Amino acid sequence: MPTHTTNADLFARAQRVIPGGVSSPVRAFGSVGGTPYFVARAEGPHVWDVEGRRLVDVVQSYGAIIAGHAHPAIVEAVAAAAADGTSYGAPTEREVLLAEEIRTRVPACERVRLVSSGTEATMSAIRLVRGATGRDRLVKFAGNYHGHSDGLLADAGSAVALIEADPSDPTAVPGSAGVPRGAVADTVVVPYNRVPELDDTVACVIVEPVAANMGLVPPAPGFLAGLRAECDRVGALLVFDEVITGFRLGRGGAQGRYGVTPDLSCFGKVIGGGLNVGAFGGRADLMDQMAPLGPVYQAGTLSGNPLATAAGLAALDLLDDAAYTRLEATARRLGEGLAGALGAAGLDVVVPVEGPLLGIHLAADPAVDYDTARTTDTATYARLFHALLDRGIALAPGPYEILFPGLAHDDATVDEVLAAAGDAARAVAEAGT
Ligand SMILES: *Cc1c(COP(=O)(O)O)cnc(C)c1O
């Protein structure tokens, strides 16, 4: 890799040719300030920036990476696939294998369709539920993120918090400019962790079964089962957005962990092994309403492409029961350590841990929904972020993103993060008084 450059130089050049200098907004460090590091390469739990600096990375591509960067088995699988051609526009064996593997782990996915991103998965699932039910309204939860399609951008948590419309302005467009009022007219936003009362105009409820885009907010006991029952009562469909939880929270994702079965499930991130994949799946009678069998259209030039399916299969191959046990142990250790280190320095902090997922909530009380999630002290997060970055630890550059410890974060790496966290928290607490 060419490294005769600096982060500042590249960011300046990037801003002259790419809006904000980035290909996805949070990467611009808007909510923490400063200059983003430009990554030159990565391996295991580490990334190296273009200045040659090594960082312990707990971003892990926002959860797309679970086995550590550049895992040899995944690199090898991708390289071998690429040598045979990168896309054909014709079906391949690996698509069948990946779909079968998803169905084995998540039996409610009797049929699976592969797409190229989580956004495509949720967008297509919503079209399918509307087509199948003949109803238009969808219910989503404030602070849940389901990708960047028009109808799902209302109150969408972390990514969109930066550009949220002024809530006191009744003419404001929710989520993003450029979303026509009509596109969100059938989107009803309700508070997380409370079962809404539905009626028979509702096509579906879409939910992050563990909310992971407003910090980490686990489902309250009975919440997911309550959604299932309420959907059944009015004939609405239940859609789990498992783009983060799928194949990370456990072999069977959130539905496996909590024993609640949705009608449709959406996947992304982990199942691409770090490449561009999404998928959605569910009951055969529903999924078979997709084209070419049924009237609901959806397509993609690169859907199920050889590189992405090779990477996804190689990643899933690494995810056996022992892997999940390790992921949970790592998250627990990291979570307890972070809570201790930040708390000892005098910061108000709650570190929710749910299986292998954890968040940092800088407030005295745990978050249960979007309103309480937003009590996190964003200014302190920004200072903590930079104090950690100065000490070689990369958190996500946004207060509502979660941490993604993976199989490459061994005990020594976790210890390194915790030592830096204690030191960083003391520096932040001193500067704050
Ligand atoms: C990341 C994410 C998406 C969108 O996936 P992309 O691949 O970024 O389009 C959807 N839902 C959830 C819960 C996510 O975290």
TrEMBL record:
Gene Ontology terms, MF aspect: glutamate-1-semialdehyde 2,1-aminomutase activity; pyridoxal phosphate binding; transaminase activity
Kinase in keyword set: no
GO cellular component: cytoplasm
PROSITE patterns according to UniProt: AA_TRANSFER_CLASS_3 (PS00600)
Keywords: Cytoplasm, Isomerase, Porphyrin biosynthesis, Pyridoxal phosphate
SUPFAM superfamilies named in the record: PLP-dependent transferases
EC number: 5.4.3.8
Keyword Repressor in annotation: no
InterPro entries: 4pyrrol_synth_GluAld_NH2Trfase (IPR004639), Aminotrans_3 (IPR005814), Aminotrans_3_PPA_site (IPR049704), PyrdxlP-dep_Trfase (IPR015424), PyrdxlP-dep_Trfase_major (IPR015421), PyrdxlP-dep_Trfase_small (IPR015422)
Entry's Gene Ontology BP terms: protoporphyrinogen IX biosynthetic process
Cofactor: pyridoxal 5'-phosphate
Catalytic activity: (S)-4-amino-5-oxopentanoate = 5-aminolevulinate
Modified residues (N6-(pyridoxal phosphate)lysine): K269
UniProt pathway annotation: Porphyrin-containing compound metabolism; protoporphyrin-IX biosynthesis; 5-aminolevulinate from L-glutamyl-tRNA(Glu): step 2/2
Compartments in which it is found: Cytoplasm
TM region positions: none
Subunit and interaction comment: Homodimer.
Family: Belongs to the class-III pyridoxal-phosphate-dependent aminotransferase family. HemL subfamily.
HAMAP family: HemL_aminotrans_3
The protein's name in its UniProt record: Glutamate-1-semialdehyde 2,1-aminomutase
Native species: Iamia majanohamensis
Organism taxonomic ancestry: Bacteria, Bacillati, Actinomycetota, Acidimicrobiia, Acidimicrobiales
